[in-house]
Write a structure and sequence with these properties.
6 strands, Arc Repressor Mutant, subunit A, Rossmann fold, 2 domains, six-stranded parallel sheet, alpha/beta, single chain
């Protein structure tokens, strides 16, 4: 048991079994206290700002608001917040985007319990921590030229934070009225964002936006399956 003051943790993951397993693991360690659990990115933002945990453990692929946008919003409201990404998505673009958003750590979900607890302790001390495989990949791109968003390659199609929120909700099957209610904006503003999305991406219909959202990790095809069922997926997304 650790006699020091426990490190407070918020877990954000849409899979209950993952949250329960991680909570049990950290409670058994004795050096951590779970103050909240979030089932999606929007809930993570609300709880992170209300509870002010020492460390937020953030999944990337979550419904309503993904972990990338949730991290951006949390750090915009509270720059002192400490976010550790724990995700099954470990390709270079995910890593770049999360680091550019301000994440202090990045671990793959297959990381050991020892790596996870070490990462949380390091990040709680104000340091950064990355699993060995992630650290090597960061080192390999460290000298590459980056744009002002921290990405290695400039992309004229880069979406704003609000456009990413609209894209996710549209891809999850929300009508403009639902998107407006969720984001607290007008339907006319939603329509404007949708048009900007289509113009930037060269996409002309909702099915195309959905395919793009899946391809870029904004949502997972499994999330879409739970919403509409495989028979109703846009072409080339079921799998």
């Amino acid at each position: 048991m650790n006699s020091a003051t426990p490190i407070t943790i918020l877990f954000a993951d849409d899979h209950a079994i993952v949250r329960q397993g991680l909570c049990a693991l950290l409670l058994a360690d004795g050096g951590f206290r779970i103050v909240a659990e979030a089932r999606d990115g929007r809930e993570a933002v609300t709880l992170a700002l209300a509870m002010r945990p020492d460390v937020i453990v953030m999944d990337i692929a979550m419904p309503v608001l993904n972990g990338l946008e949730a991290t951006r919003q949390i750090l915009a409201a509270n720059p002192a917040a400490r976010v550790v990404v724990l995700s099954a998505h470990g390709d270079d673009e995910y890593i770049q985007r999360m680091l550019a958003a301000g994440a202090a750590g990045f671990l793959e979900k297959q990381s050991s319990a020892e790596v996870l607890t070490k990462a949380l302790r390091e990040v709680a001390k104000g340091r950064s921590y990355f699993s060995p495989a992630i650290a090597r990949r960061i080192a390999n791109t460290a000298s590459a030229p980056r744009d002002r968003d921290g990405m290695v390659k400039a992309d004229a199609r880069r979406l704003t934070s609000r456009e990413n929120e609209v894209l996710q909700l549209v891809a999850e099957g929300c009508a403009n009225k639902q998107v407006a209610a969720t984001l607290g904006i007008s339907i006319k503003t939603v329509e404007k964002h949708r048009q900007h999305l289509m113009d930037k991406l060269g996409i002309h219909d909702t099915a195309g936006l959905t395919r793009h959202a899946i391809a870029t990790g904004v949502i997972e095809s499994s999330v879409l399956l739970t919403i509409v069922g495989e028979d109703h997926l846009p072409a080339a997304t079921a799998g």
